[in-house]
Structures are given as structure tokens and as C-alpha cells.
Amino acid sequence: MPSSATSAPASAPSRAPLVRDRECAVAGVSAGLARHLGAPLWAVRALFVVLTLCGGAGLLLYSWFWVFMPWGEGEESPSRRMPVAWMLLVVAGLGALGVLSGAVGGYWIGGSASPSAAAVVIGATSACATAAGLWATLIDRTDPARGPRHAMIVRVLAVLLLAGVFGVLLVRPGTAPAVALVLLPLAGLLAVLSSTLVHRWRELAGERVRRIREEQRSEMAAHLHDSVLQTLALIQNRAGASSEAARLARAQERELRAWLYDGDAPADSDLPTDLRDYAGALELDYPVRIDVVSAGLSAERASGGLAAAAREAMLNASRHAGGEISVYIEGSAAGVDVFVRDRGPGFALDDVPGDRLGVRESIIGRMRRSGGSGSVRSDENGTEVHLHLPVGGETRV
Domain range spanning residue 293? Predict the structure, then answer.
């Protein structure tokens, strides 16, 4: 009796996506197409060469893939191994030497070269020099391996080659065909020089977009400040600092203000920013309200021992005191000071059991190991933790 279970047909192997690699030789078309088809890379490149010999079909097909084939995933700019601009410059330089020496332009100097051969060499020289300048400006400028300085050097050399050919043709025009050839290097000069406007246009377009975005953000900030933020502040005042509603309203107010006023730039991982973020997290977990104020200049990072000790002091105040907590950060030429104050019942450090190492090791001991100092002053009116890190202190956790 045949079994009722039937084996599922083997699924066809999935093809690789048709994308170009960001690390490529020239454009990544052949490599991406070979990976997608599962064919050898040399075979795909040979196919493009053969099709190019058939009326230029391979060049048109390659250009079509270049325009419509997307780049692979990633944030970095594409990088090309082949120095395309320099290769084009070498070809243009050889052609310019021929033109300047009169070896191929002898039909107007008195040599034996035909006008058609001179036209081909002059046209190829102008085309290669123009292509080198355009490639450097539009492609190599954003290449991480080359950059704007490389693009400027190539562009200057291309302009010099085109100007040299243009000067020779302008001084010795000869017959009518030579006069028509003057337009080729002249058109190349205009194309290379005007290509710099593309980069300027992109910068202006980006600046315009940023300005429009900033105006919209300002309008939205004004509207939210007059409505949502004032409502959240009213909830905090009416509900009390330690209530659940007040803590949630304060957290939402902090997120809205960060989104509105910080812009698109990521917050720097400095000490005030880190402690403000940590205060927001504590307010969601404990019935506290924490105000973080920073004054002076401080280069202290959030990864140092001072930041870790300050976070521990804030956590202790939230756990044992509650209510309102103030954190004051002061930076000066002598170092950085952090004060964490609460209004709890206070405690005596000597009465803390020996197995409770939070204050002794996580705060005072950590500051001592980091090259600074820490002290605790507590009475019935509250507790103040003072952390000091002098300039040159070793800020390790």
C-alpha cells in the first residue's frame, strides 16, 4: 500500500541578489552579474568584450547594468581598485604628445599623416582627458581610497592636456578639417571645468534640505512647547514628584525635548549626557525626580570611573532616599567635581555593615583607583556625595 506521505519536490536553489559590490574593480557590474548567474567572472567579462566588438552592444549593455543595478548593503561609499582616471590620463598624455610633436598632425605642418588619422588621435585624446577629469570629479571624489585631493590633481592634469591640445590646434589651424577639431578639446575643457559645479550643486541642495528641515523642526517645537510640553509640566506639578504619573510625564517630556532640540546629530558620550540619560532611566524605576545640572567645561567621558561612581551614587539615592535628587557637575581647569544630593533621612557610614560595599568600593574606592577622591556627608537633612577627579586622573572603571 503506497504511503500517503509524499516527498516535497526539491526547491530550486535561490540566486544571489543582483547587486554590485561596494569593493569592486571598476563598477562591480561583472562581479555582481557573475554571482547572480553563478558563472565564472572571466566568462562574464569576456562576454562583454565580445559584445562590444559587435557594434558596441556590450558597452551599451554594461552601461545599462551600471545605471540600474543597485549597490549592495552598507553605509560606506563604494571603493574601486582600478585607477581608472590615471589610466585615461596616460592614454590622453600619449595622444597629446603625438599632437604636440606633429607626428600625427603633419597634414597642417607638412608631414605625411592623413587628416583622418589626426582627427582620430585628437578626438581620442580629447575624449580620454575629458573622461579622466569627469571620473575624478564625479566618482573618485567620494571614493574612500582617493578623495578630493586626488580628484583635484587629476582634474588639473586633464585641463592642462586639453589646454595644450587646444593651443596647438588654435595656433596652427591649417585647413578646414583642423579648424573643426578645435571644438573637441574646447568642449572637453568646458565639461571638466563645469563638472565642479555638480559637487557645489549637491552641497547647496543638501544645505537647502537641512534648512527646510530645521524650519519645520522649529515650527513643530514651538507648537509642542505651547501644548504638549506645558501639559506634561502641569501633570508633574499636580501629581507630585514621586507619583507614577509624574515620573511618566517627566520621562516623556525629556524624550520630546531631546528629539526636538538635539537635532539629527547623535549626542556626544560625555559625562552630563550620560548622567541625564541615567537619571531618566532611574525615574522610571523609582519614585524620584532627578535634576542634572552642568556648569563649566568638562572633557570627562561617560566611560570613566567618575561616571561609574556618579551613577552608583544616583542609584543609592534613588533606592534609599527617593523624592527629589539633584546632580551638579562642575568642570574647571583643576578637574571635575560631581555632587549628588538627596533629602532622605541620612545614614552613618560607620554603621553600614561590612558586607555592603556599594559606598565604600563602588563610589569611594572606585574614585581612589581612578586617581580622584570621594566623600560622603550625611545627616538628618539628607546626604551629599562629592566626587572629585583632578586633571590627569586615570579615568578607568
Answer: 269-390
Each as own residue / partner, the long-range contacts of residues 196-200 (CB below 8 Å, 24 or more positions apart, any chain) are 196/137, 196/155, 198/137, 198/138, 199/137, 199/141
| Beta bridge partner(s), residue 377 | 384
Secondary structure element (H or E) that encloses residue 383, with its range = strand 382-390
DSSP letter assigned to residue 254: H
Does 165 reside within a domain? yes
DSSP designation for 26? S
Shared domain for 67 and 203, answered yes or no, is yes
Q: What confidence tens digit (pLDDT) does each residue in 27-84 have?
A: 888 888 888 888 898 998 899 889 888 888 888 988 898 888 888 877 677 888 888 8
**How far is it, in rounded angstroms, from Cα 144 to Cα 81?**
11
pLDDT in tens, 258-312: 666 655 444 445 788 888 888 887 887 788 888 888 887 655 565 578 888 898 8
Is 370 among the domain residues? yes
pTM for the model:
0.49
Does 297 map to a domain?
Answer: yes
